[in-house]
Amino acid sequence: MALLYHYATTFDEEVKYIWPQPTWKLGRILFLTARYASILSIISDWTTSTPNFADISVVGCQVGLYASNLTGMVSRMAAEGTLWLCLYALLEGKARYLYLLIVGFLCFTIPAQVLQSFYIFSPKAITPSLMDNIVGWPCNFGPVRHQSYYAIATYLTFTRALLAALVGFVTISIRYRKQDHSLIRVIRREGGMYYISALVLLFAVALVSTPGIPVKDKYSIVGPLRLVLINVFVERLILRMRNVDDPGTQACISTLMFNRPAPRSGSDASEDISEALSEASPLERRASSEEKSIA
């Protein structure tokens, strides 16, 4: 429900900034895919896996399970793909980095998703028991199989998350080290905080999910946080990347992610500044005012 509430309250931003973009821009595709695949996954999961007293056939339950798992997988891939694309933008859009990132992402993602698919699609819908009917569960499923496949997939996912985190932190530290003004303010303005938060959360999820690692999510907190926050962080990151002021990153964003609005002058330019400040935090607005007073 928290994620659906976020989607509802940010729909105006989607219409304003994402819908006008060209159809085949990667930024638009990834944003909409992550958002609407997640919505379909939530609806499918709620229909089949909550006590809602719905009258669903065994075939319908099986279709609902497949739909929930498939759309959830697509949403997660789109969200993580966005992070890797933003990493490419932070690397100033050099072609060799794009090829390396694509190969690295696919080498881990394709086998991990294939192996994970054997696991998450293995339960078969069965006729609900009398107790299920009394409680209101519309569906019942058999046991999950292929746990060994899932274990291998988690190792691959952990390695991918670790690699993304290492490359991301090294890139950000090197890139922002060249900035003359406040490190934290620059990172916040260009969406780096959302990027760092998403990397940390993905790594935490991979860590607690990997067999053999003693760190466990005893109270099942990290998993639900991942379902909500990763999509939120990725969406905010895409929207904040519009304001990146580094020329190399700007060129990459315009080429792959979305078209940047043409610069405006006069009163229109003042509106742009006001809009950018309205998206900033109070500390960022204060820092901007201090910079203007010094100038």
From TrEMBL:
The keyword Manganese does not apply. Residues 3-40 form the DUF6533 domain. InterPro entries: DUF6533. It comes from Coprinellus micaceus (Glistening ink-cap mushroom). This is DUF6533 domain-containing protein. The chain crosses the membrane at residues 98-121, 149-172, 193-213. Keywords: Membrane, Transmembrane, Transmembrane helix. Residues 262-295 are annotated as: Disordered. Residues 282-295 have a biased composition (Basic and acidic residues). Signal peptide: none annotated. The keyword Glycosyltransferase does not apply.
